[in-house]
Amino acid sequence: MLTIPRIRFARLALKIYTKGERVLRIEAMAHNARDLGCRLGASYFPQAVEALRRMVERFIEVLDCLDAHAAAPPQTGHRGGPPIAPTPAHPTIPMNAR
Questions:
Q1: Selection from 16, 46, 13 nearest residue 32 by Cα
Q2: Which of 27, 23, 24, 49 lies closest to 36, judged by CA?
Q3: What are the average pLDDT values for consecutive 10-residue runs of the chain, which has 98 residues?
Q4: What is the DSSP string of 46-97?
Q5: pLDDT for the residue 53
Q6: Cβ–Cβ under 8 Å, residues 15 and 21
Q7: How far apart are CA 43 and CA 1, in angstroms?
Q8: With 6 labelled, which of 44, 56, 86, 93 sits at a CA distance of 20 to 30 A?
Q9: How many CA atoms lie within 13 A of 81 on its CB side?
Q10: What is the pTM of this model?
């Protein structure tokens, strides 16, 4: 199954084509070249392509960091002594304590 999530911000967009856990390709699109911070005109096209390439590379770096963070096992904190276990978000109160 082919999945194509889109990430949009202003008039710039990224499309990620994935199949399962594999990324097939990533596209960067500019609906208005002014959003790239480049000058307009055919002679400035290489600058626009370079800005889009940097945008894709930065996005890939962020995805790599997220993937590495998600793969790491959760760790408990240490404060010089024995490890501190994480506390539950909503502690349970016994019925007879009320």
A1: 13
A2: 49
A3: 78 87 87 84 89 90 78 62 62 59
A4: HHHHHHHHHHHHHHHHHHHHHHHHHHSPP--EESSSSEEPPPPSS----GGG
A5: 92
A6: no
A7: 40
A8: 44
A9: 2
A10: 0.60
Residue closest to 70 by CA, chosen among 32, 35, 21: 21
The dihedrals phi and psi of 26, each to the nearest 5 degrees, come to: -130, 130
What single-letter DSSP state applies at residue 98? -
- Residue 8's Cβ-count burial label (10 Å; 0-12, 13-18, 19+) is exposed
Is the CB of residue 37 less than 8 Å from the CB of residue 50? Answer: no
